[in-house]
Amino acid sequence: MLLGAISKAQESKVPLLFNGRTSAYFVLILCGGSYRRGKASCGDMDIVVTHPDGKSHKGFLSQFVKRLKDMKFLREDLVFTTHSEQGTDSGVDTYFGLCTYPGQELRHRIDLKVYPRDIYAFGLIAWTGNDVLNRRLRLLAESKGFRLDDTGLFPATQSSGGKRGTRATASLKLQTEKEVFDFLGFPWLEPHERNL
After folding, report:
1. Name one GO biological process term (predicted).
2. Does domain 130-185 sit in CATH 3.40.50.300?
């Protein structure tokens, strides 16, 4: 059975499931989406992960998913890609699936995204949302000659019609969400202020 909404109390327990399973690997694990924005309930769980050394994220997701399946937390796979191991798609690894809390059978949607450290801020903005803010930021970037997505802020190119950068173009190096907002000239919003 799939349950639509996840309470804030339920989602606040998710990082506890990861304790002791990630300390040797990652120090930056955040629940994103509605939870990070302070909403009372969430449609799914968005978990955004990185490692500060910029290298140790490679190959992590496969091991992590296996551990969460062994715990019977992850129950069904929907999408599972490991680009960090293949050197493709900016090195972002993705797992979308269904999970259950210990002792329960109700299933919830979960999205796990593992980003290289140098593009983590872009992933965090995208997976925190909300969708209205993300559209505003993308349109603002386009008006300034850039393309913004969860993997970076890219200069637009002639071959892309002047609107969207290409994957061959290197992203600007911005380390924090605030740096991205500042570069675009958009007023800084704390995560709880992003329910536009």
Report:
1. double-strand break repair via nonhomologous end joining
2. no
